[in-house]
Amino acid sequence: MKEYRLTDWLPTTKKEVELRGWDELDVILFSGDAYVDHPSFGTAVIGRILEAEGLRVAIVPQPNWRDDLRDFKKLGRPRLFFGISAGCMDSMVNKYTANKRLRSEDAYTPDARPDMRPEYPSIVYSQILKQIWPDVPVILGGIEASMRRLSHYDYWQDKVQKSILCDSKADLLIYGMGEKPIVELARQMKAESEKRKVDCTTDCIETFNSQLSTLNFQQIPQTAYLCKTTDFRPEEGDINLYSHKECLKDKKKQAANFRHIEEESNKYAASRITQSVDGRLVVVNPPYPPMTQEELDHAFDLPYTRLPHPKYKGKRIPAYDMIKFSVNIHRGCFGGCAFCTISAHQGKFIVSRSKESILREVKEVTQLPDFKGNLSDLGGPSANMYMMRGKEEAVCRKCKRPSCIHPKVCPNLNTDHRPLLDIYRAVDEMPGIKRSYIGSGVRYDLLLHKSKDPAINQSTAEYTRELIARHVSGRLKVAPEHTSDRVLNIMRKPPFSQFGEFKQIFDRINRELGLRQQIIPYFISSHPGCKEEDMAELAVLTKRLDFHLEQVQDFTPTPMTVATEAWYTGFHPYTLEPVFSAKTQREKLAQRQFFFWYKPEERKNIINELRRIGRADLIDKLYGSGGKPKR
Predict the structure, then answer these.
(1) Which stretches of the chain drop beneath a pLDDT of 70?
(2) Among 397, 573, 388, which Cα is nearest to 492's?
(3) Which residue spans within 516-624 are E strands per DSSP?
């Protein structure tokens, strides 16, 4: 077992800074999460990436925003900038349920305390820092800021909000996975700082940070910023969205905006986007091209301890417990699900780690003190997209589809599962590994897809069998999400018949191998397009398949997804056709109850509801004997 010193973590206090022999910091990062030095926690990744650039970096996790603000002052002013992330989750999703009730636990906080971050930390932290250090640049990042970079519907405020840049007063916003833009920003600011030390007086150096807007930092890809309309220089190809004011007046314009936002975030060569708000302009630069394998390996191979900071000794951080024995093997997801922020934040293009990098990390996991030999997950945003990409990159460069597999699998997509099988087998042969399980969601539509290449079809069949035989810890998670093909089409999910087909394969292989494993399907109620009748039919179909559903949720409208914009505006962003959504508490509960048709306490309400919506024909299918309890 490897032993660590306090200085093996990035410093979080003045004492820890002094232990490193530093008298000044280049960058100070503020996070809404506890500091876990692990590549699954974004602030740790950004901190380590900047450290690898030779910068002196500190992290202030979960600063107290309610007292005298000492946490925001204790490390002084950085030489370059403050960085802010609300955490691995949007703070409002973290704090509230789909029914807007306060959650009792925060998985990213020691002992799951629910009161260690404010609502909208990106705004709260930034405003405080701008109040204390008005001339130091503040850079926003993380999923909360990323998904709020332009006008967006906020479910918790129940209104369309401006870009988060407006309320936060931050100088720059980095969207998506932030390694490349933050490194470029740091390099430019460091170079400018060194130049000013040579060329300027002391007074000039002190005002350097206040001049961020006059420098070239606004040209960095994958960033967003506010500027005066008179200072902006339009370029051919810019996409000018409807203004924030227009979106407030016309929901259809808000919906129309989103199509541009999503399409541009899913292109190799995207256009710059602008939106007018309160007499100023939000400018969103195009994203960087996908990372290379070498760049992704670099981000994962940095000297993480893979442990929470020692300040949390004796305290449990649930989110860390969930992933401490898992290894992430790729980034991105080309599923394009309408309700999901993964492709919106990570991108649809898959970037896979090298086999060598993955095996190095697995070896580190085996050396953790309480590791017993079982990896909990060897996956990614989806379990089985490793090394999948377009056969011809030129075709991908012209594409703006949000999904590579909906409505059908793209003929240019390489769906070969052999590289993933090779990873599984190499990991299972390593000393200290008993089993490697797959905890990520499996895309069964990829497993059912028939390629024109017989060798790829053979690899898929081989993968399916090996997955079920060796990598399921008793329960395999999949996400059909619904049974109605009409709703599934809005969700950008495959037809429900494919779930039935995959379940037959799963059950057959289990019988052949003498295994008693379960398939655990995930479902969503109240998604745009879903009506009570659809949920009633879902109950009948899942009963027929002998499921008592457990993994279910109400749709939560999170910022900047197709589903959220359809839910709020009532129009599908791509067709601008009307879309029904359940919005009232009564409508949502009426849909949700059908998940639990098997519970005696739900029977009476469900029978009454089926009669009310004119579907009494389903009562016999659910309960028999006209809904009367069997004697």
Answers:
(1) 1, 197-216, 626-631
(2) 573
(3) 518-525, 552-554
